[in-house]
Design a protein that fits this description.
This protein is of the alpha+beta class and about 650 residues long. The chain has four domains: about 1-50; about 65-230, Alpha-Beta Complex (Penicillin-binding protein 2a (Domain 2)); about 235-280 and about 290-575, Beta-lactamase (3-Layer(aba) Sandwich); about 595-645, Trypsin Inhibitor V, Chain A, CATH 3.30.10.20. Helices cover about 35% and strands about 25% of the residues. The protein is built from 20 helices and 26 strands. Strands 2, 3, 4, 5, 8, 16 and 17 form a seven-stranded mixed beta sheet that branches. A five-stranded antiparallel beta sheet has the order 10-9-21-20-19, sandwiched between helices. A three-stranded antiparallel beta sheet has the order 1-6-7. A hairpin with a 2-residue loop joins strand 12 and strand 13 (about 340). The termini are far apart.
């Protein structure tokens, strides 16, 4: 019995000690696991989370005084600055660092000439950094000097960039303007805001929990200037069209006006302006509707006779008419499904070729051209030219215009559409479409920005290339359009745009305006679209003047001379060479008569004098034989103009 009892006690003790050992091993294992976990965690914190945690810790005691970045500049195609920056100063306060809030508020209010209570709210605000807005923004040098001389803790003056437009009102709708916080609010400033803004910098300093500045090294993070935009705009041509618009408004007092010039081969906008306009440096002084209405892309209206170019090009492409063989008898009106459509000329133009229909801008004749196409064909070309849709120009606020749906078009709608009535287009749509009609048939997307430049070095980051949407008509049809429009300027309604020694093509337009569903009497939009050289266009210009006063309201009377002045300026600016070819003009007794200069080189003095009897001769050199003449033969010169002859 004792033996069994001893063995039972021994087994019990063994089990007891074994259980203790198991617990010890378990506890030890748990401790090892916890230790490993701690080591892994510490390793993770030190290696992977150090930067994040360090930044979080630093954010608790670091503060930043922001430094605004300069916006990127905007320059024209030749690098002339159109939008830049000037340095100003802004006031920032750190309320916790200010000892006597009342005194600081009183002194700052006196210097800034603002309300004491408002300033007291700024300097006592429960925030780490308070920007004094708006009275503390864009401070002059004198005001900044007075604040700096106070020497108060917690009062800081920071560099701030302010947008500046050297040409004031010039190109204002295209460039747009910038708000007080340096953000683009309209025009290119808004459309390319992400590129122009740049990255802000800061002055970092360290403070305790109460906001008191610590004696630690400050860190300066430099701002990064925005990207420079290079435009297709030529500022010299832009100044020319701005001057023409100013002259037109002084002379005719119209309601609105616009001019757009473009390279028809690429879609590059060379100049764009409208009236009324505004000063981008002082945008606060203008009404919103003036600032936001960039007429070349926003305004919609019936285009009138300039739209006949589209109808003509479609008919030439489809070969439904022959300019030289087909004829039309214009009796002054045409009846379409019970509606009478009149010609602008009382009694009409009589029997005329289709080329003369174009020259005379004959509405009944164009009704006939439209009828040869039919609704579906005509509308397919109108859509292909991009009407009824946005052109995609790099500006905000573009309109789409309004077109008939083919299903809703009857004979009358077809007739009126043929000569540009009953539909609504934008100027940018019109100039793009006509560009396609004369450049070989290619429809390009209009654009302003040609490249993005690095702000410091001026090196090209990215170029924007011309974008061809599609081919609308063939080169053969386009060549006929160019010929017809050159004939309009030489022999037809566009005579006032004729430039001697240069081949000019174009088309006039006199569009009725609609109000309350009715056409207005004696209130028109007068337009002209012209281009040169007519055989190989380098520039196309569209002029539209809304309701000029004190003048016969025809596009050929008002807008054609304006377009001529713009194109004349473009000849020098774009270095367009003269031509001895092209169509001669028929002169009236009111016109200054130009004559072709004969070749007198090799003649003696008496012979040359007889050949040049209609001109004034200036001699130089000695002898009796002409060895040089200027201008050279074959060009036009005004009767009575000077011809220089060198004798030898």
């Amino acid at each position: 019995m004792d033996f069994f009892l001893k063995h039972i006690i021994y087994l019990g003790d063994s089990m007891f000690f074994s259980e203790i050992h198991e617990r010890i091993r378990f506890v030890f294992l748990v401790c090892i696991i916890i230790l490993i976990a701690i080591i892994i965690k510490v390793f993770y914190i030190q290696v992977f989370s150090y930067e994040k945690l360090n930044n979080l810790a630093e954010s608790l005691w670091s503060r930043e005084l922001p430094i605004k970045a300069d916006r990127g500049e905007i320059v024209d195609r030749n690098g002339k600055v159109l939008a830049t920056n000037i340095t100003t100063v802004s006031l920032v306060v750190v309320p916790n660092q200010i000892e006597d809030h009342e005194k600081v508020a009183r002194d700052l209010a006196n210097i800034l000439k603002t309300d004491y209570q408002d300033m007291l709210e700024h300097v006592t605000k429960r925030t780490s950094i308070e920007r004094v807005h708006p009275e503390g923004r864009g401070l002059s040098y004198e005001v900044a000097e007075q604040i700096n001389n106070l020497g108060y803790d917690g009062v800081y003056l920071l560099k701030e960039s302010k947008r500046y437009y050297p040409y004031d009102t010039v190109l204002s709708h295209v460039l747009g303007y910038v708000g007080i916080d340096n953000q683009g609010l309209s025009g290119l400033e808004l459309y390319y805001d992400d590129y122009l803004m740049g990255a802000d910098g800061a002055i970092k300093y360290f403070s305790d929990g109460k906001g008191n500045k610590l004696e630690l090294t400050e860190v300066y993070e430099a701002p990064t200037k925005g990207i420079t935009l290079k435009l297709a705009i030529d500022i010299d041509l832009q100044l020319a069209i701005e001057n023409e618009l100013d002259n037109a408004f002084a002379k005719y007092n119209p309601e609105q006006g616009l001019i757009v010039s473009m390279n028809p081969k690429t879609g590059e906008i060379l100049a764009m302006a409208s009236r009324p306009n505004f000063n981008s440096n002082e945008y606060q002084n203008y009404k919103t509707e003036v600032i936001n209405r960039n007429l070349p892309i926003w305004m919609t209206y019936e285009p009138g006779s300039t739209f006949k170019i589209i109808t003509l090009s479609a008919a030439l492409e489809e070969k439904t008419i022959n300019l030289f063989k087909d004829t039309f008898n214009d009796g002054g009106a045409i009846n379409v499904d019970g509606a009478t459509i009149h010609c602008w000329k009382a009694g009409g133009h009589g029997h005329e070729t289709m080329l003369q229909v174009v020259e005379n801008s004959c509405n009944p004749g164009f009704v006939k051209i439209g009828q040869t196409l039919g609704v579906n064909k005509l509308m397919s070309y109108i859509n292909s030219y991009g009407f009824g849709e946005k052109t995609g120009i790099d500006l905000n606020g573009e309109s789409k215009g309004i077109l008939f749906k083919p299903i809703n078009m009857g004979p009358v709608e077809l007739a009126t559409t043929s000569f540009g009535q009953g539909i609504s287009v934008t100027p940018i749509q019109q100039i793009r479409a006509v560009s396609a009609a004369i450049n070989g048939g290619n429809l390009y997307r209009p654009y302003l920005v040609t490249s993005f430049l690095e702000s410091e070095t001026g090196s090209v980051i990215k170029n924007i290339n011309p974008y061809k949407e599609r081919q609308v008509i063939s080169e053969e049809a386009s060549a006929l359009v160019r010929y017809a429009l050159e004939s309009v300027v030489a022999n037809g309604s566009g005579k006032n745009a004729y430039i001697e020694n240069y081949r000019v093509g174009g088309k006039t337009g006199t569009a009725q305006k609609v109000a309350n569903g009715k056409y207005l009497d004696g209130n028109y939009i007068l337009s002209f679209i012209g281009f040169l050289p007519a055989n190989d266009p380098e520039i196309i210009t569209y002029v539209a003047i809304d309701n000029p006063k004190g003048v016969t309201q025809y596009g050929g009377v008002v807008s054609a001379p304006i377009a001529k002045s713009v194109l004349t300026s473009a000849i020098d600016i774009l270095d367009i060479k003269p031509s001895k070819e092209g169509m001669p003009r028929e002169y009236t007794w009111l016109d200054t008569k130009y004559m072709v200069i004969p070749n007198v080189i090799g003649m003696n003095k008496e012979e040359a004098s007889e050949a040049l009897k209609d001109f004034k001769i200036e001699y130089s050199g000695s002898g009796n034989k002409v060895i040089y003449q200027s201008p050279e033969s074959g060009y036009y010169a005004p009767a009575g103009g000077s011809i220089m002859l060198m004798l030898g």
